[in-house]
Amino acid sequence: LHDGTPRNEENRFVIYKLGRYIPKNSLFGVVEKANLECSQRSLIRNKAENSLYHKLVIKNIKQKNAAIYTKDRKYTYRDLHNMTSRFCSFLRKKNVLEGDTVLLALYDSIEFVVAFLSCIRLGITVGVVDPLLNKKQWKPLLKDINPKYVLSAEGIYKRSKDKRFLKITGESSSKYF
Length: 177
Hints:
The protein is α/β, with parallel strands linked by helices. It contains 7 helices and 6 strands, in the order αααββαβαβαβαβ.
């Protein structure tokens, strides 16, 4: 299965380099090497130059080349910033606040990237969950983590009766992106 990145562009991205799955540094080592501070607040502040969101998106916003490729199109950093801004507004309307916990039960997609970036931008504690979990697996997970919301794909949303599940992918949810 290929993610949509053109083969001739793969050399530009670290994830395609040999040995990419073998971590050589701890998370804190990577954070310090990138000149970020180790506190959660400094990683997430929206406008701070040492925030994770700034390092991932804002710093690259003037570049015209693609930040993400999908099978249908490519997205620039400006596209990511615009979609993240809209999705942050959606999360605020749902009263998701800094420090709240949100789970992402999404497939590999642009929606996943935007939801993840939006959460770190707002200071939301975000967890990634396998979207293929069954009902038995969800029950203890929701009890232990007690998230404010689970941002999910349409199929997962339809299977759950829990009001914390929000459908963010599917035909009627494309307005968030």
